[in-house]
Amino acid sequence: MNPPNTNLRAFNLAVQTLLKTPSQFLPHLTIPTITHLPEDLSTALQQQQQQQQQQQQKTNDTNNDLPKPKPITIRALVLDKDNTLCPAKTTSFPPQIFEKLHALRTSPTSPFNQTHHPDAILIVSNRAGSHPRYEAEVVDIEDRLSGLKIPVFRLGEGGAKKPFCGAEVLAWFKERGVVSGADEIAVVGDRLGTDVLMAARMGAWSVWCRDGITEGVDPKIGRPGMNLLEKMEVWVERYLRESKGLKAPAPQGWRGSNDQ
């Protein structure tokens, strides 16, 4: 019998983060589904940072001009699978999501174009690729996406699942010459406790697919079929953002370069 695909360590980290550094639980950019992911993600994140800076200026009630944020350059995407690209525990890509992936890989203006940037997109799942027992899923996914050349990350023996595999994912991109640092990576997924926290831990940008793969969701109600933990994440995100006024801190590597 296969053991359940649990991730108790990730849950414990989420609780610790909420107690100590809750802003790391928040995404840098929120979109309904991956179909809304901007092709020019660098500019979208840049605008978010500028808006935050302007709000900070108003809050501090100062007329002093703050330094212009350093340009953001996203060269790589880390994509979650379950409830971001496919229904949970399946390898079936909804047509609109497949079309989005096709656009990201074939548009001549996309920074993730497969001809010019063949290794710019990597699927990192806590199911497919996380254990040999899911190898059939990996093979099926890579077969379905063979025309787009999007691989699935295979976690090495003894490796820990998201949000703890950021170093290994960063090394994958560096080995292929895609990025020079984690601040050139955006992690895209539907879970705050794994996808967003992994981005925070590795020093990358995070994009939260709030409604999973479901279009037209009322954010006050949430997408159908959410489990208790997913519902709690949505509630906590809204509380931290609306009631506490917190915002996701920019990646340390990007801030460090900006301060020089």
UniProtKB/TrEMBL annotation:
Residues 42-70 are annotated as: Disordered. It comes from the Eukaryota. Pfam families: PGP_phosphatase. Residues 46-57 have a biased composition (Low complexity). GO terms for molecular function: phosphatidylglycerophosphatase activity. InterPro entries: HAD-like_sf, HAD_sf, PGP_Pase. Transmembrane segments: none annotated. This is Mitochondrial PGP phosphatase-domain-containing protein. It comes from Aspergillus nanangensis. The lineage of its organism: Eukaryota, Fungi, Dikarya, Ascomycota, Pezizomycotina.
